[in-house]
Amino acid sequence: MQKVRFGVIGCGGMGSNHVGYLPTIKGAELTAVCDIDPEALGRAEQKSGAKGFLAYQDLIKSGLADAVIVATPHYFHPEIMIYAFSKGVHVMSEKPVGVHVKQAEMMNRTAAKHPKLVFGVMFQARGNAGYRKAKELIDSGEMGKMLRATCIETAWYRSQAYYDSGGWRATWNGEGGGVLLNQCPHTLDIFTWLCGVPRRVMAMVKLGARHQIEVDDEVCAILEYDDGVFGQFVTSSGEAPGTSIMEIAFDQGLLRVGRDSVQFLRNRVPVFQHLKTSKERFAKPEAWNISLPMPKGGGGEKHAVITQNFVNAILKGEKLIAPGVEGIKGLSLGNAILLSGVKGKPVDLPLNGNVMEAFIKEQCRKSTFKKPKIAKKVADDMASSFH
Fold first, then answer.
1. Which of 18, 179, 184, 342 is the one with CA 20 to 30 A from 333?
2. 383 lies in a domain?
3. 23: which residues sit within 8 A by CB, 6+ positions away?
4. Residue 384: inside a domain
5. Does residue 379 sit within a domain?
6. H or E segment and range at residue 33
7. Residue 227, CB half-sphere, CA atoms under 13 Å: how many?
8. What is the per-residue DSSP string for 337-360?
9. Please, are residues 231 and 149 in contact by the beta-carbon 8 Å criterion?
10. DSSP assignment, residue 50?
């Protein structure tokens, strides 16, 4: 194979973005587009010159695409991935890979049965220089034991107009969740990528606290990792101007992690050594503020970075930056926080997929929420991605 022929499924917000940059990807060719809404499909066809399909099954069966990018609402990601793999087509899924962890488990089992097919997830934040440098430091082991992991991400502000713009947004039946499932997957992915998945979650979650919606828009969680390490996770879609803080404390010092920077406060003497050997009652280790060089390639269009890597994985066997099978990690944490907050009790991880699936189905069944009247057709929005 000299080139990877792509089909984009879902030509709304994010789908249109993929259609726009795909011609810049080396070794890629956009050959097909798909949307259930004829108007959205027509715009994508005109923009790209690719052949259009109203049904994803027809695009995949056409033989025009070696790989597809799935940019539909959440509930459709698993079924499209599984169908594409059954027809020998590579898949890049937009985030999240699914609504609940059982869907992610099914996708991962499917991927395991097709080792020659590439499964990626659009976690473009992994291309940011700051996150990459933090990952490099942590994986090297030079930071020592993790002591605390804190993430406060309240820069996901959304107005009521945003939620009113589509019938599927912020509903149990249309989306399956709120800020944790829609805005926060990138944050949850980076947090679990750097710190791992905790073993227990205790959370407080408010449904429709600041918006006329039926799902989560305010979240505060306490996390417990192996060896008793504590963490905190806070997010909101109703706070402005909001903040973005990721702090990870280690024996060797503190990392304050941003998208394109890392502040490293290095302990001259490791914490565990100092607290056992210091003769002074109120002393603490001397800390140095270390300036860290950032990895190259941190700028530019991050979606394109992930897609180029996906193409290289197909053509050259390059290691994926964001393997689809890792989509379950952040999804598991988000699911556990939601389940704990709504049920009002601790939730252990790994999360039981059947329990989470039953919870989502229960919320859908009990839902009586009626959205305000919207001007845009629901069908148009259902065909789009969700940012």
1. 18
2. no
3. 30
4. no
5. no
6. strand 28-34
7. 6
8. HHHHHHHTS-EESS--HHHHHHHH
9. yes
10. P
Alpha-helical runs (H) found in 121-184: 129-140, 160-164
Taking CA atoms, 7 is separated from 30, 49, 143, 342, 366, in Å, by 6, 12, 43, 38, 37
* Beta carbons of 57 and 32 less than 8 angstroms apart: no
Are residues 27 and 309 in contact, defined by beta-carbon separation less than 8 angstroms?
Answer: no
**Which pLDDT score, from 0 to 100, does residue 371 have?**
66
Extract the tokens encoding 43.
């715009």
Contact 115, 196 (CB under 8 A): no
pTM: 0.93
User: Which run of H or of E encompasses 287?
Assistant: strand 287-291
Residues 352 and 246 in one domain: yes
Query: What is the Cα–Cα distance from 122 to 89, expressed in whole angstroms?
Result: 17
Number of other CB atoms surrounding residue 24 within 10 Å: 11
- Residue 331 tokens read as 């999804």
* Residues β-bridged to residue 221: 203, 233
CB atoms within 10 A of CB 324: 25
pLDDT tens digits for range 366-379:
998 886 554 333 33
| CA 94 – CA 12 distance, rounded (Å) | 12
Residue 386 has what pLDDT? 28
> pLDDT tens digits, residue range 223-279?
999 999 999 999 999 999 999 999 999 999 999 999 999 999 999 999 999 999 999
User: Quick one: tokens of 228?
Assistant: 């008793």
**Mean pLDDT of the 161-169 span:** 86
Spatial CA neighbour of 188 closest among 309, 328, 355: 328
Domain CATH for 87: 3.40.50.720
Residue type, 267: N
For 234, list phi and psi in degrees, rounded to 5.
-130, 135
Asked if residue 341 and residue 221 are part of one domain, the reply reads yes
Length of the chain: 387
Q: For residue 306, give the H/E element and its range.
A: helix 302-316
